[in-house]
Design a protein that fits this description.
Length: about 180
Amino acid sequence: MFELFTPTFQAQSLDDISVERLAESGIHGLIIDLDNTMTPWNDLEVGPKVVEWFEKLHATGIKACVVSNNKKKQRVAVVAERLGIPFIFRATKPRRRAFRAGMKILGTGQKDTVVIGDQLFTDIMGGNRLGLSTILVLPISDREFIGTRLMRMAERVLIWFIKRLTTAKLHSPKAR
């Protein structure tokens, strides 16, 4: 059960993810969350490191699509247009529909698409449900939607259980 919430990889931030390594791994498409992954929550400002990262991404030929649960089309559109990428808003992640739509827009499949986001219960769970590789990044800001704050508390409990389970497996007689 915990596999649904376990990311394939983790990174401090979007710009800590090696674009070169993604390309070398045969990745052709990225489904990327917006709020607290690319920009602070509910903010239109895209930081210079994120802009630079997307420039590297474009140079390698890897395509990206913003997939956001944000309900404001204009907000998502402004950021996506600044970065020159398509977008999906009102995604209802972790439902599979938006992830499939993102792959269709990108022209990619399960093996060459990675999901990047800051939340276990939306981004990581949604990507894992489709068998995609997932990368969990730390949230850019502490400012968040109230519902997200509540989910963060549940995430902390889940992470604690996963760590305990992993530690227990490492120390069990069967693991030796």
